[in-house]
Amino acid sequence: MSAHQIMSADEMRRAIVRMGHEIVERQGGAGDLALVGIEHRGPALARRIATVIETQVGVVVPVVALDVTPYRDDRGGAIDPDATAAIPSPTLRPYDPALTTVILVDDVLHTGRTVRAALDALLALGRPAAVRLAVLIDRGHRELPIRADFVGRNVPTSLRDSVQVRVAEVDGSDEVIIAEDL
Q1: E strands, 17-173, where?
Q2: Which residues are bridge partners to 166 per DSSP?
Q3: pLDDT tens, 66-121?
Q4: Using only C-alpha atoms, what is the Rg of the chain?
Q5: Cβ atoms of 133 and 114 closer than 8 Å
Q6: Are 37 and 46 within 8 A, CB to CB?
Q7: Cα(13)–Cα(10) distance, rounded to whole angstroms?
Q8: H or E stretch covering 6
Q9: 62: nearest Cα among 102, 114, 107, 14
Q10: Is the pTM of this model over 0.85?
């Protein structure tokens, strides 16, 4: 297996800045937004996008972490019907779902199953006004009809490749690595 860097820390920063600007432009502002980062690297990316938005338009966008593990259908069996998303309860959540456009933030979009689980988790907590998807890397190979609205970089891969996003908050450094199965 051969591995090499496909995004440096500076390239990641530029992609995140661009995504933040695109979100504000397409949404016509930031007043009704919330960023929901899908665990494990999504929350760090969401916080960075929120900082870009705050710098750009002066609006503090709420950022929430979402653990979708109980809603996965591809990890160990059926979805837990009694699952509750690991997100603050409605009384603690920093936004009103009915009045908010939620931007789901994840590191890599591949099959679409994580995003499907995130949608189930969000809807279990209340129906947002709208949901959009922002991903740092879109590597293709979808199994579900899911498309990102905001993409840092499209990376063509084979099914055997592994794309690893590293963020300083979790991994100690910022970079994107692709491990190619030769």
Answers
A1: 33-38, 63-66, 101-109, 130-138, 150-154, 162-166
A2: 175
A3: 999 888 887 654 555 555 555 544 444 567 777 899 999 999 999 999 999 999 98
A4: 16
A5: no
A6: yes
A7: 5
A8: strand 2-7
A9: 102
A10: yes
Which string of DSSP letters, residue by residue, matches 100-140? -EEEEEEEEESSSHHHHHHHHHHHHH---SEEEEEEEEE--
Instruction: Reduce the DSSP state of residue 44 to 3 states and report it.
Output: helix
Burial class of residue 81 in the structure, from the number of CB atoms within 10 Å of its CB (0-12 exposed, 13-18 middle, 19+ buried)? exposed
Give the C-alpha separation, 3 to 162, whole Å: 9
B/e letters for 129-143, b = 16+ CB within 10 Å, e = fewer, are eebbbbbbbbbeeee
Burial of 25 (0-12, 13-18, 19+ CB in 10 A): exposed
CATH of domain 9-157: 3.40.50.2020
